[in-house]
Fold this protein.
Amino acid sequence: TAVTINRDGGVNDDAAGDPNTANRIRGMNATNIAIGNFVSNRKVPFDVYNIDSIEISRGANSNLFGLGTGSGVVNLVRSAANVQRRSTNISTRADDTGGVRGSFDFNQPLVANKLAIRVSGVVQNKAFEREPSFDDTRRLYGAITWKPTKKTSLRLSGERYTREAQVPNYV
């Protein structure tokens, strides 16, 4: 089950041990996580740096798309290269334990209304009070859109994810 009672009478939730299963709809077990309507690997956590939108389907409606369960489906729609406009976004942040995060998103049309490229990336270094704990993540995402005709679009994308971590033991 998703909830257990420990020896002290406290309630333990499986989501604390595996946060990637914490997405729930209607209180049921973990929802299916899909990326572009394809089932994703739960062991690679998703990050919103390369997500354009999030679609949530609940209950019986989630079964219509072949990925559903009674608890629903969360579908992440990845960023696509935009052939009509150029854009750049750079952001940084830091926290009080020494953790830092930097991200960028760059979209460039190469041929107006025909061909574009998009590159996004994240470097995140989490720090903890308990030493020598750390959690370093690096992500790089690329996408290409080619529109040979007005009604035809071909899209290609890929992501590289690396993580090195020594998380603290809170016990």
About this structure: The chain has a mean pLDDT of 82.
